[in-house]
Specification:
Blueprint (H helix, E strand, L loop, with lengths): L1 H46 L8 H5 L3 H12 L5 H9 L27 E5 L2 E7 L5 E6 L8 H13 L3 E5 L25 H6 L2 H4 L4 H19 L3 E7 L1 H13 L3 E7 L3 H8 L3 H5 L6 E5 L12 H9 L5 E4 L7 H4 L5 H22 L8 H10 L2 H9 L17 H8 L2 H9 L15 H7 L3 H9 L14 H8 L2 H9 L14 H7 L3 H9 L14 H7 L3 H70 L1
Parallel strand pairs: 3-4, 3-5, 5-6, 6-7, 7-8
Antiparallel strand pairs: 1-2, 2-4
């Protein structure tokens, strides 16, 4: 008993000592960080005068390890080797992928056969591949063709590499396979599904042999596997065909760990009816954004604005997405013919779209260092900092790059007049013709409105289309006419912009300029031969618009232009009449010389015959 009491006392003493160390640790950490803060402040004061270019640390903040190294090295404070060694020895995750989403090279040697391994975990057989201990994982739920289908495993291989994570394909369906299919738990490869309702009905008894609870148990085992084996804390789900139905229940079971889902050719509208659960209720189980990829026979309810789509869109606005594969039959992801160039292209697109969507939500950008910060930098013209973000994979354009009113970074750069920022965004695949905002304007519209001539020229050099119209039907030339940006107007005209585009009220730029009394704009447009007497939707000409707003000088300018063009037309008509008369005379002249020529030819024959006669007479005399 004495020994036991002694042991207990020693254990309590050890616990008290451990507790004291834990309480002291935050204080030491705080002291180290205070020292580091002073050093950092000094560095910032010195460095701010030298350069305006932001470093990655300024964008994303220094890591704890880097901060501590600087503090110890510069301050020369006391070392705490035990704590530091413990922190360094712990292996951290390899990190997020950088740059653009990796393309799927289906012709590469590693894409010809699966690269992962099969294993068994808690009575569940699964295929796994990828980077472990990197926080992210994907569970791929195969379609009817089973977990051994080569294309399914190649998809898992590619996704795992593209997102620098871990991927598993669990074996879900019953054994033996339907009619002895070759993939252990799937249907035969030659099983053709042309009519979803009719052909799937033959599989109903096999597919619905077990309830969703049976399959959900397997999904939970797969989730435990990626947690323990790969250290995953953020999990994405890819459901293909039949697997999309199981993905709904699986995502619900993951709760906070679930990040996003990709549903290829989903069968929720059929399997939900078999299971007795409404499709909106199934989709409502996803606690994260969803990407739907839709083949030819998929209902329109999955599309943007459809009933099924809006269930997820209501929870994750502007994150729910839909991709059109309407030219493809059901099951093309698993069974499409790669020898057919059209199907090959769509299969590759489906693979890459999957990786892109998963990467976006499994590796979210740090606060202040993502899409919003790129727009901010574009508006400030900080090209170097922009490049660092773009190199890390922040999209330069497209839906993900837009703000709440759908304005892309290129519009921010154009508004503030940063031509170089527009060039950089275009180099990183931004579309300079991307529309955004309530008015659905392009960057060219915005640059013209704000009189950024250099940006206008740059955008035109980057193939910006000067004919594109906004929601009111106005082209950039309308904007120049309204805001009086003469230099921008001349640049647009030099780039062959249409001189008389019509907006939704049938107004030309001349109408707009007359409404605002822009004499210089009207003069330039007249020089470019804009229509002087065009009528808007109310039948008003530019002169009438100017007259109604009492722009008398402008009225005189229009009258002079009308008179000038009438005189020009008069002289042009005279010239045309002269040309017509000359043409008529030429025709008559062509006819007359033909008779004279014949006479002349006759005379020449006679004259040519006379000398011959004289010669004959002379010869006789001789």
């Amino acid at each position: 008993m004495a020994d036991e009491g002694k042991l207990t006392a020693e254990a309590l003493a050890q616990l008290e000592e451990d507790e004291a160390q834990r309480q002291d640790a935050p204080k030491k950490e705080h002291r180290r960080r205070d020292k580091g803060k002073e050093v950092t402040d000094d560095k910032e004061r010195k460095g701010s005068k030298e350069s305006k270019v932001k470093s990655p640390d300024e964008i994303f903040g220094p890591s704890d390890a880097e901060g501590e190294e600087d503090q110890e090295g510069q301050e020369g404070g006391e070392e705490e080797p035990n704590e530091q060694d413990a922190e360094v020895e712990e292996p951290g995750p390899p990190g997020a992928p950088t740059g653009f989403t990796m393309k799927w090279d289906f012709e590469a040697e590693e894409s010809q056969s699966p690269q992962g391994e099969e294993t068994k975990f808690e009575d569940l057989t699964l295929y796994h591949v990828g980077t472990q201990n990197n926080e992210v994982a994907i569970i791929v739920i195969p379609d009817l063709w089973g977990w051994q289908a080569p294309r399914v495993r190649l998809l898992a291989d590619y996704i795992a590499k593209a997102i620098n994570g871990f991927a598993v394909v669990p074996r879900f369906l019953d054994n033996p396979p339907y009619k002895e299919g070759p993939h252990d738990d799937g249907v035969p490869e030659d099983f053709c599904i042309k009519n979803l309702d009719k052909d799937l009905m033959s599989l109903r008894s096999w597919l619905m042999k077990d309830t969703y609870e049976f399959f959900l148990m397997k999904f939970k085992i797969a989730a435990n596997f990626v947690r323990r084996t790969a250290g995953a804390i953020r999990i994405g789900v890819v459901g293909i065909g039949w697997g999309a139905w199981m993905a709904c229940y699986g995502a619900e079971s993951l709760q906070a760990e679930f990040s996003c889902a990709v549903l290829h050719t989903p069968l929720l509208h059929i399997l939900g009816a078999w299971d007795g659960v409404s499709i909106p209720r199934l989709i409502g189980k996803f606690g994260g954004p969803v990407l739907f990829t839709l083949p030819a026979e998929a209902p329109k309810e999955y599309e943007r604005g459809g009933e099924y789509f809006e269930v997820n869109e209501a929870l994750f606005r502007r994150q729910t997405e839909c991709d059109d594969f309407r030219s493809m039959p059901y099951g093309f992801v698993c069974t499409g013919d790669m020898s057919d160039s059209r199907e090959q292209q769509e299969i590759v697109r489906a693979f890459e779209r999957t990786a892109q969507f998963l990467r976006k939500f499994l590796w979210p950008f740090p606060l202040g260092g993502g899409y919003a910060y790129l727009r901010y930098l574009a508006g400030k013209g900080d090209v170097e900092a922009m490049k660092k973000l773009l190199d890390m994979g922040v999209p330069a354009g497209g839906r993900d790059s837009q703000d709440e009113i759908e304005q892309a970074p290129v519009i921010y750069a154009a508004r503030e007049g940063f031509a170089q920022a527009c060039k950089v965004l275009a180099q990183y695949q931004a579309d300079v013709n991307e529309v955004g905002g309530v008015a659905r304007e392009t960057a060219l519209h915005v640059a013209v409105q704000h009189n950024k001539v250099r940006v206008v020229q740059t955008l035109l050099n980057l193939q910006a289309n000067p004919q594109l119209q906004d929601s009111s039907g106005q082209a950039p030339l309308h904007k120049a006419a309204r805001d009086g940006t003469v230099s921008c107007l001349q640049t647009l005209i030099a780039a062959a912009a249409m001189i008389d585009p019509r907006d939704t009220c049938e107004q030309t730029p001349v109408h707009i300029a007359c409404f605002f009394g822009r004499e210089d704009i009207v003069s330039k447009l007249f020089t470019a031969r804009a229509d002087v007497v065009a009528e808007n939707i109310r039948g008003q000409t530019p002169r009438k618009v100017a007259d109604r707003h009492s722009f008398s000088t402008l009225v005189q300018l229009i009258d002079k232009e009308i008179e000038k063009r009438e005189i020009e037309e008069h002289y042009a008509n005279e010239e045309r009449e002269k040309e017509a008369q000359q043409a008529l005379k030429a025709i008559e002249f062509d006819e007359r010389p033909s008779s004279k020529a014949s006479k002349r030819s006759g005379l020449s024959k006679q004259s040519s015959s006379r000398p011959g006669t004289r010669e004959s007479h002379r010869s006789k005399k001789k």
